[in-house]
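In the previous lecture we treated proteins in isolation. Real proteins rarely work alone, and many bind small molecules. This record shows how such a complex is specified: first the sequence, then the SMILES for flavin-adenine dinucleotide.
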Amino acid sequence: MYAGRLNLRTLIVGEEAGGLIATTTLVENYPGFVSIPGGKLAERLLEHAKHYGVELIEERVEEIRQNCNVFEVLTSSGSRYEAKSVILATGTVHRKLPAKNAEKFEGRGVYYCALCDAPLFRDRKVAVVGGGDGAAKEALLLAEYAEKVYILCRDEGLHAEPPNLRKIEENPRIEIINHTNVVEILGEERVSGVLMQRQGREERLEVEGVFVAIGGIPRSELARRLGVEVNEKGEVVTDKQARTNLAGVFAAGDVTAGGFRQAIISVAEGVTAAYSAYRYLTSEYVETRRCNGEP
Ligand SMILES: Cc1cc2nc3c(=O)[nH]c(=O)nc-3n(C[C@H](O)[C@H](O)[C@H](O)COP(=O)(O)OP(=O)(O)OC[C@H]3O[C@@H](n4cnc5c(N)ncnc54)[C@H](O)[C@@H]3O)c2cc1C
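The predicted 3D structure, ligand included, written as tokens:
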């Protein structure tokens, strides 16, 4: 939206319009909205950007190449776009559960998105693996369908936002089990339970669904291949102006090394990146394709 208002000819190339926030039911901490469905918030942001002429293409970017001061963006359909500046906002992918059989049962009892799959578990028992606010929100949504929701936390207590924690404490369908490490998913054709390690002992818990909410891994492969610096966690390194180590390449949101992964922070970093791209294009960019300062 800012890039559009700054008269930059702006193209968003995104695999799934809306990103991660569109996969969460209610967002209750985005300024200006006491409560708004994640999908609706994403829709509104996109509409606002389109209002200022920004275009969206729903495709996967396979490669970004630098050719002097022009970037070539190659997509899954074989399309090729040229850009004078690039903003990387590729977010994260769900961290997979490092337990035996977790991959085998993916889609047959092991899931990564409650909004997408919670209705499958009406009147059934499920577990949420994770200890953060994401896990809390997944559990609250699941409790609208499931008979019982266990939150399996590795540490002591759930590190969720206090309003979400309160809702969990008041919900008789949700139970938190602390100091738990899920080591195996049990079942034949579908999931029938989990094997957990608790204080040196192994315990079984009967559940038909396991929802994994143990955070995300930055999707920074494109950035890395382009020559953008990433830290030891794979997060893109930026300065306060959202600049990366490459001139003309900016980054924003969960893919960067910010620490607190939230929609409002990603949005604010996106604004900074758009403004920095504008500054770059209007004051630093050299129109002719010069490499390394050659005439
Ligand atoms: C369960 C859960 C609940 C949450 N609840 C809240 C909440 O209540 N409030 C809040 O503020 N935050 C919440 N968050 C966090 C919030 O969703 C993220 O902080 C935010 O979505 C990050 O935005 P982003 O644009 O940086 O990345 P994402 O939202 O991850 O978007 C990245 C986009 O880039 C696309 N992409 C990646 N690689 C490519 C490629 N090669 N080609 C094309 N497209 C690509 C992806 O498909 C995706 O659309 C929640 C997260 C989870 C998991």
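Summary for your notes: The helical segments are 2-5, 38-51, 114-117, 133-142, 162-170, 221-226, 263-284. The pocket of flavin-adenine dinucleotide is lined by residues 13-16, 19-21, 24, 27, 29-30, 60-61, 89-92, 134, 137-138, 213, 219, 222, 253-254, 261-264, 266 (CB under 6 Å).
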